[in-house]
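Troubleshooting entry. The earlier prediction with iron/sulfur cluster gave an output that would not parse, so I re-checked the input for stray whitespace and re-submitted. Clean input:
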Amino acid sequence: MYLENNNKYECSGCTACKAVCPQNAISMVKDNEGFLYPKINEIRCINCGLCRRICPNIKKSSKNNILEAYGVKHKKEFERKTSRSGGVFVAISDYILKQNGIVYGAELNKDFSVSHR
Ligand code: SF4
Ligand code: SF4
């Protein structure tokens, strides 16, 4: 798990561990690409284990019980070719915008940092 081995593939940066820590011992620190990962202050930490119990990635790997899954893609080939994830985001965001809703997304900048727009 990320909190023990710093393996970034095991952390989504959700900040649940930071929020639950009773000692305020966890801070989210930016890596060189702008993504936030938890860092434990060992002096403050009392080893209560709450951060490991709340982590959704640890729960996921220990239970391994997928309840339901869907495979979807945009109907238009152009949207699929110019998008990630089969263009599903475009289809959903178009639907929301047509109803005067608001859509936020993450954008990769030229220096590989991430902006939310
Ligand atoms: S083990 Fe407990 S005190 Fe230590 S970082 Fe995790 S939640 Fe905080
Ligand atoms: S709770 Fe788990 S996934 Fe979320 S930031 Fe902490 S280590 Fe990463």
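This one parsed fine. The longest strand covers residues 26-30.
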